[in-house]
Amino acid sequence: FGHAVGPEDALAGVRSCVAVSSCKGGVGKSTVAAHLAHALAARGGRVGLVDADVMGPSAPTVLGLEDARVEASPAGGGLALPVESRGGVRVASLGFVNVAPSTKPGAALRGPLAGRVAAQLFRMTDWGELDYLVVDLPPGVGDVTLGVCAAVAVEAAVVVTTPSRLARVDVLKGLELQEGLGVPTAAVVENLAVAVCPGCGAENRPFGGGHAAELAAAAGVAPEGVFRVPISPAVAAANEAGAVGDAAPEPVFLSLA
Amino acid sequence: FGHAVGPEDALAGVRSCVAVSSCKGGVGKSTVAAHLAHALAARGGRVGLVDADVMGPSAPTVLGLEDARVEASPAGGGLALPVESRGGVRVASLGFVNVAPSTKPGAALRGPLAGRVAAQLFRMTDWGELDYLVVDLPPGVGDVTLGVCAAVAVEAAVVVTTPSRLARVDVLKGLELQEGLGVPTAAVVENLAVAVCPGCGAENRPFGGGHAAELAAAAGVAPEGVFRVPISPAVAAANEAGAVGDAAPEPVFLSLA
Ligand SMILES: Nc1ncnc2c1ncn2[C@@H]1O[C@H](COP(=O)(O)OP(=O)(O)O)[C@@H](O)[C@H]1O
Ligand SMILES: Nc1ncnc2c1ncn2[C@@H]1O[C@H](COP(=O)(O)OP(=O)(O)O)[C@@H](O)[C@H]1O
Ligand SMILES: [Zn+2]
Fold it and tell me: Which UniProt keywords are listed (chains A, B) (predicted)?
């Protein structure tokens, strides 16, 4: 791909940027971001993924890239090359930056410093030509989200929730703050909604009834923009094994793409 | 109960303080804190609960106290009375503080301000005599955790995780930071480990194999200090209905208490 010459044009070749967000932790935001990026790549797009969850980067774990390290871009300018996943997605994560074990990334990152570090993941990476740049935001709308919005024009967000009322409260609040930043919602993902028993095939909803339609209405998203991802042993196994992107994408992530 | 006269002795009657923490969001920290507090109360203790997750307070939701509002303590001094749950636990949460709907609690709280607000939940509440004060910390070790440790002597922490490798990375890091604050770990809770099919009784582990023994070893906790909480429809239903503390506690929370 063509090389940028410095931070001011690192993002010049990026056509569109999509954030994956949620004001509630543990709903599956990193999972949706990594699987969505690989579904977009499987459909032929040139895709990047920024793991902006600087306090707890998880892209290296789900992509089986824990040992990867960042290398300098051949074009210089202080830029680094993104790490390429086996599924063909270019990834930037604080997890790839070699820090001494006792001061793991995110240990000391609070407030505005975390926002500046996240912005650097965008500007200091030599992305080249990309159709999509998918951004996995940390939970909440804090300093990192503000730093990201200052670094790049985020066209739209995919908001992830679970069926629980505990998630509903946080996610609806997050929507207000996100709209205040001028980022429209393109899709709503209700994750971990239904579990299918591997023994007898019975379905049950361990985490409650759901509020995806309410969330979509609040975000101005049409019903076709709501995607439901079941509790899937295949998704969990791919995450645990660091094998996201190795097999064909789950159908729901292809339709989300 | 006996009344404090001002912020400097609001905590005078509190015998011991236990934090419930995790560096990974969505593992069930608020669930464990609320159920543990009510198990301690069911055994006859005088118990308080501080919902220090100022960005996303959930105690009012799981306790069915969304409409409760804080009242001033009859003894004055600017202190507020805690809200009493039906299960007999005294609760302080930002969710009880009446703010205009569009500026929900936590919307503007970032960095050191969040730490100061959390500290106020301790000092501005007239706790009276308590055997235990259970604190639900926000995910991570940030400004709020520092604010809490500055406001009260936290004797020990209960660290919550799930079987997933994604949680393992964050929770082990959190342990290092917590030990740096001088807070020992009293117990490890592995939550959402096993799902039992309501149809045929088959067990499966949707979120991976587990690392509770490794976490306990890293935290210096004996094997008896590890508690496993299954994916429990009763726990989820109590959370969703705001009915935590109305029925007898689940056995695992009694043994944790
Ligand atoms: N659809 C799914 N099916 C099964 N497990 C899932 C699914 N989505 C997420 N998980 C698991 O749930 C946990 C939380 O997901 P994660 O992506 O880390 O959430 P977040 O980024 O919102 O904190 C992880 O252990 C992940 O493997
Ligand atoms: N043991 C359990 N069985 C069933 N559902 C649970 C259990 N523990 C937590 N949950 C559900 O999981 C979700 C996350 O729990 P929560 O306590 O909000 O986590 P955290 O405080 O770590 O963000 C909630 O919807 C809650 O009802
Ligand atoms: Zn079954």
Answer: ATP-binding, Iron, Iron-sulfur, Metal-binding, Nucleotide-binding
